Amino acid sequence: MTCTFAPASEPAVPLYLVASDRVGAALEALPDAARDWAGNAGFTGAAGQVVALPGADGGVAGALVGFGGAQDLARQRFVLGGARSTLPVGTYTLDTTHADADPSVEALGWLLAGYGFRRYRASDAAELAQMVAPDGVDAAELETLAASECLTRDLVNTPAADMGPPDLAAAAEELAQAFGVSCTVIEGDDLLAQNFPMIHAVGRAAAHAPRLIEFRWGSAGPQLTLVGKGVCFDTGGLNLKPGNSMALMKKDMGGAANVLGLARTIMAMNLPVRLRVLVPAVENSVSGSSFRPGDILTARNGMTVEVNNTDAEGRLVLADALALAVEEPTDLIVSMATLTGAARVALGPDLAPFYATEDGDADALHAAARKVADPVWRMPFWDPYEPMIEPGIADLDNAPAGGFAGSITAALFLRRFVGDARYMHFDIYSWQPKPAPARPKGGVGQGPRALYAALPRLLGL
């Protein structure tokens, strides 16, 4: 994969990004031969259209990439990234004179388009066009964001046979060590001894023991605690999923993958924060020791939970981790999880739902998300639905009957474990079902770029 820009010293030719309503002006600025070539090639500025411009020596003297019109921009992002694979191989410099494009967003899309998951392929990746970092962009930051996104994608794309709880722990340890900090892992029956009963209950039936992964980075500044759901594979437990619903369950650790990607960005950019990362890593499997529908579990904070569906396990493991998070002062807690199908029904695969206990935090996140092309949408912590998660026999119900408001009731369940702490929760999909510009089919980050861009407002940095 190619997540870096070409050296500025490398010879490069211009790459013109052209909106459909500015084609005339763009062509008029070209030399006569290039203008005639583009006209004869039928260049209209349609989004993603590519026309290479020939040089006198038979090489490529430049290229035009269509940016489309207002309707195109409303429907897709990373237009330039989508064109990268169709450009002739070479090195380019970006010219956005004839498009109202954000060079940072388009350059990020270019980098993300260099991603390919090739762990299980014998063939080499095709060579791609390269680009010098555009003037005025923070090249180091964009390269960091792209590399962190590639980490997230790799983790999600790796099947559970190679990304079980031990492998996820190893990935977190490798990341922590790369930035000079140690990672602690509580494993198996030690979870019971150290009072993480729900993480243990969910993961105890699997071949690989459940774990709680933790690392800290930074010694000054506000404390940010990130909690990621690390269900490395979810059969549904005794409430077994049908085969079609189980097909993508390698991605059920997408929350952990997104948290680790965000943590990587924060550490690489050396933000002035104290970062704490918590990942409960389990497989929800079936065996004689599986937890059962009807069981009453006691969480780390003493609350009891009636298990009405063993396929609503993600909130159980997150609850113990969140209870740990609030045992010390923290300025902001963020959880990320591939938690509910209800969130997909509500917003589809491309839009990341999130919840926030404070309106100002939601506003900051929305503003940042628009700037970095990482779309999010706020969902409500709707207090009138609180009785839905109260079964009567225990303090909480992990799977309220009826099926209504499934994402909201899951978020309300998690909020019970953070008390009065300032809290944001993401119920993401972390999967691109169809190829899109700069986003091949497979694992994808949802929310980390928006969160990173919002942190200066969220934490007063």
From TrEMBL:
GO CC aspect terms: cytoplasm
Keyword vocabulary terms for this entry: Aminopeptidase, Hydrolase, Manganese, Protease
Coiled coil feature spans: none
Keyword Chaperone: no
Keyword Hydrolase in annotation: yes
Domain Cytosol aminopeptidase: from-to ranges: 309-316
Molecular function per GO: manganese ion binding; metalloaminopeptidase activity
Swiss-Prot/TrEMBL GO biological process terms: proteolysis
InterPro entries in the cross-refs: Leucine_aapep/pepB (IPR011356), Macro_dom-like (IPR043472), Peptidase_M17_C (IPR000819), Peptidase_M17_N_1 (IPR048816)
Family designation: Belongs to the peptidase M17 family.
Protein name: Cytochrome C oxidase subunit II
Native organism: Pseudaestuariivita atlantica
